[in-house]
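no rush on this but wanted to send it before i forget. theres a chain ive been looking at and ive put its sequence and its fold in token form underneath. i want to understand how the tokens follow from the sequence so walk me through it. thanks a lot i owe you, the record is right below:
>
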Amino acid sequence: MDQQVAIDGKHDLTRVDTPVSTPPPTPTPATAAAQDLYREIRSIYQQLAPLTSLAPCDCVNALLTRLVTLCVQPYSPDIVDHFYRIDAATALCHDLQNLCAIAEGELERHWAQKILQDAGPHAAPHAHARSDLTSFPYHANYLSLSHLETSLLAPFLARAPSNIAFVGSGPLPLTSFCLLARFPTAIIHNIDRDADALAMSSALAEKLGHADRTTFACEDATDAAGGRTRWEEFDVVFLAALVGMRSSEKVGVLRGLRARLRVGTVVVCRSARGMRRVLYPVLELSEELQSAGFEILAEMHPWDGVVNSVVILRVKA
């Protein structure tokens, strides 16, 4: 309703007060830093997106190295909060996660092929393949991540596991090889729905001398009706970071596994926090997980060069 204004004791019915406009908020150092970060990450995406291939090369390597370096910096909660409040930030992160997933697969395939080719003509292929494996650019990160995972896992195991599954093992199953060293009596079962990736990783296990302690199954973990894997025999199941590109998809995979795992089985999931969510999808810890049949045991967020967070779950009765 129009507001009447009193003039000389009377009311002027023709005048309307002009609304007072609120000036835009003054940028703070946190909002400015978040905007700068967003612009730089968006620029990296705009350079990666048009590329016809994300296989390792000078351009791809430089862009991804810059992206990872930006995302693992220890930002304040205010900067992270402001970053994700930017309208297009969520969509940008999802698009970048998809690109990073493709690039990671290409990098693993490149190195798996290199190791297999280099080890071929040598009389002692195991030693040569292991030397090549340690040259993989993120070898130290995988070692650190698997050490963090197994250390966090240890208090929830009654005994050393004998059967471990790794879902989404890919063409270069570095974590599986790390687990062989950490649990010297365990068998590691590598499960992936990509038959070519499994063939490559199986050949790698042979070259590295791990064939007697590794198995490989081409299976979709979300398909409850298919596959020959005996899920009820596993003591621990690892879920790769890229199994499920959204939290709801990850919960869906876990819900499917719950129907096949025995009560008490421990599940190790990889997630992300803060700006590292730009690189990897998040597993949200919510009532959805509990309704899917899991008890949440622990969560850990590294602050060093290890990108992934770790979530430990246990199958409830």
Observations:
- The two ends are 62 Å apart (CA to CA).
